[in-house]
C-alpha cells in the first residue's frame, strides 16, 4: 500500500514543497507495530502524540477520523509497522505558524524488522543529545542528531548507537530506549531534558518492571546486562558496547517473558547458542 | 511562479511523503534576496550551504546546475526573495541515510518583506537555544526551537524574538543575527554552540565592522543601540527589548550606510521622526 497523505480529512495526492514539516521538521510522528490488524500499544502512542501536539501547539487531525484511517490501513495485516506523520500543514516563508493550521498528515506501512538471533552491537556515538526540555520526551521531527548518530553507527559497522547527553551521561539508542540491569533491578535513564519517552519504556515503568535513574557510562560497562526497547521490536539484548561484551542474560529473558505475557506478539523464540 | 521541486537534475511534480526532510528535518536551506535578477551575497550563501552539506554528510545537487536554476528563477525579478531547500532525498523508515542519496530540492520565490518605518520590538523568548556544536552555525531544517519562539513572539504581539542559550546568554533573533553597540563598537554573539552564522553577519565581520563577543542580557539592556541583520532585510534597528527602549541611533545609520555602499539594494530611506 503506497503512503496516503491527508489534509485534515481530505486525501491529498502529495505533499507540498511549502509543507512546514519539510521546511522546519515542524511535526510529530509515531511508529507502531501492527499485529493481526491491531496496534498493541495504541493508547500510549496516541497519548504521546497528544502531549507532543500540546507542547508544539500543533493542532492534530480529528482523532476519531485518524484512528479510523489507521484501522483501515492495519486491517488484514498480520505483522508489520505503521507510521503516522503529522505536520503543521502548509505555511508561507518564515517560522511563524499560520493562524489557521490545517494539519497535513501521512500514513505508511512498512515490513516488520527481522529479529536478529544474537544481541546488538552498540557503537558509542560521538554525536550528543542537546539539552532541550521544550522538546525532550516527545516524538517530534527534528531528528538530525539521530541521523548523524546513525551515520556513525553505519561507519562503525554496528547495529545501533548509544547516545549520551552533553554531560556524557548515557540516555538512549538512536531509535530505542536503554535498559540497564544492575543490583538485581532494571533501570532506564530519565528523558526530561533529552531523548524520547518511548511507549514500551512507559509500559515497563508503569508495570514497575523498570525504574528511572541517571546513569554513568561506568554504570553501563559494569552492568549485568543491557537491553534496548521500543514499541516495534520489543526488548532486544545488547551483546557489545565499546570493549565490553555480554552473554545471554536470564534478566533479559525474564523481562521478555513479562512483556510477552501482556503482549504475545513480542514473544521471543528461545535461542540455543 | 509556483515552487519547483527537483530530484538531482530531474524536475518532480511534488515531494514524496517518504522524503527525509519531511520526516526528520534532514536538510538545509538558504533564503536569499533577489535584486534585479541577481543575488547580492550568493558566494556566502553557497559557502554556508556547502559547510552544512559537509557537516551533515548530505550530497548537494550539482552546483552548476543548481546555480543555473536559481538564475533562471531570479531573472527578471526586480526585488524579491528566493528560497532554496535541499533535502537528503527519499528514504525508507529509520534514521540511517540510504547508501545512494539523490537529493530532492526545491526553489520558491517570495515577496520582499515590507521595511517598517520604525524599529523592531523584541520579545525575550523563554524558548532557549540548545547547546549543539554539531548543528550550530549551519542553516539546517531542524527549526522547532525557532517555531516555538515565534509562537511566543506572536502571543506577545512583538516583531521579533530574542533567543538566549541554555546559559541565558543572548545569541540571536529567531530569523536574524544580533548586533549590539557598546563602547563605540558593534558586537555580535558567537554561534559556535548554537544559532546560525548569518550571511550578512559574516560580511560585517569580514569587513571589520563588527566583532564577536559573548554578551550578557545586561550588556544588551545597557547598550547604546541594538540592531538585527539578515541577508534579506539588511540591518534593522531595534526600538524595544523587554522594558528598555531606544531612539534612532547614528551608529545604526552609519552601519546601514556602510552596507549600502557595498550593496545598494540595502540602502534605507532616511526616516524623519
List the helices and strands and how they pair.
The structure is a homodimer of 273-residue chains.
Chain A: E1 4-7, E2 10-12, H1 20-24, E3 27-35, H2 42-56, H3 63-74, E4 79-87, E5 104-110, E6 120-124, H4 144-156, E7 160-164, E8 170-173, E9 177-182, E10 185-188, H5 199-206, E11 211-212, H6 217-221, E12 225-230, E13 234-241, E14 244-245, H7 250-262
Parallel strand pairs in A: 6-7, 6-13, 10-11
Antiparallel strand pairs in A: 1-2, 1-5, 3-4, 4-5, 7-8, 9-10, 9-12, 12-13, 13-14
Write a structural description.
Two copies of one chain form a homodimer. With 273 residues, chain A is of the alpha+beta class. The first copy, chain A, has two domains: 4-110, D-amino Acid Aminotransferase, Chain A, domain 1 (2-Layer Sandwich); 120-266, D-amino Acid Aminotransferase, Chain A, domain 2, CATH 3.20.10. The first copy, chain A, is built from seven helices and 14 strands. Chain A has helices spanning 20-24, 42-56, 63-74, 144-156, 199-206, 217-221, 250-262, and strands at 4-7, 10-12, 27-35, 79-87, 104-110, 120-124, 160-164, 170-173, 177-182, 185-188, 211-212, 225-230, 234-241, 244-245. In chain A, strands 6, 7, 8, 9, 10, 11, 12, 13 and 14 form a nine-stranded mixed sheet that branches. Chain A has a five-stranded antiparallel sheet with strand order 2-1-5-4-3. Chains A and B meet through α1, β3, β4, β5 and α4 of A and α1, β3, β4, β5 and α4 of B.
